Write the structure tokens for this entry.
Amino acid sequence: AKQDGRNCFGYFSPDMNNNMLARITLEQSLRSAVLQHEFCLHYQPIVDTSSGEGIALEALLRWRHPQRGLVPPDEFIPIAEETGLIEPIGEWVIQQALRDLRQWHNQGIMINMAINVSGRQLAHGDPSHFACMLNGLLQKYDVAPQYIHIEITESMLMADTELSLAALTAIRHLGVEIYLDDFGTGYSSLSYLKQFPISVIKIDKSFVDNMLEDRADANLIKAIITMGQSLDMRLVAEGVESEPQRSFLQGLGCDFVQGYLVAKPMPVSELEPLLQRIVRV
Ligand code: C2E
Ligand code: CA
Ligand code: CA
Ligand code: CA
């Protein structure tokens, strides 16, 4: 038994070692990315399901890694959250999104901006900390709060109800709307959702993917739309890639769609011609 003792401290296989090393390396290069300004934002439009009119742009974070090229957020946001680096990164995202929005508003393109925020950002400091920071940046870039939407995930709401409620209420009081992202993946109930100041529900792509072939997914989407409508919330379907999907969602009364059918997320330089086309000036 004594010989087995060392196992209590964890036995490091070469594989685990490599894994840890990879994480530490990632964390270090993420730290330097913050200092070296290696991040950029791509934008994807959210449009009216029937008219195709552009309603909002969702800001999606990208990391321009000097060796690895453009790194998608799923590969570094979890580490950024664990290490707390999501706070400076998240603040940069808001600044950059507001800077870009200011430019479009100057050109008379009065679109809204949806910004993703992770739970860790809301949980930092007291419940009004995030709202105060956001308010300061809205003033700095002279953007009216009704143009900004904060996207939070359903799982985040469920992680800490009391704190989420306080933080979201403070944001809503600024005049900023809250979007509930990835809806359908977290098993929250109608009565549960009702207590949060949510304006818009985003139906997760995983339901949209199979809704034309899979009756269960179609029924789920119908139920989500009916539920959203009964709570006076509007609905966005994400990951809409085909015209049949769009028209099916239109038939169900889904207000907005987002996905490759309309446009992939793209850098500012590619976005501007599209904006001229889909946004009424
Ligand atoms: P999300 O908020 O659910 O964003 C939607 C994701 O679906 C984006 O991936 C987008 O590129 C992708 N997408 C949109 N339409 C389609 C489609 O028609 N087909 C397919 N196959 N994919 C589509 P992306 O940009 O890789 O972002 C992944 C996730 O990273 C986001 O999921 C969000 O949770 C997170 N994220 C992105 N930017 C930020 C940020 O600034 N802060 C935080 N905290 N999280 C972010
Ligand atoms: Ca989102
Ligand atoms: Ca989403
Ligand atoms: Ca998603």
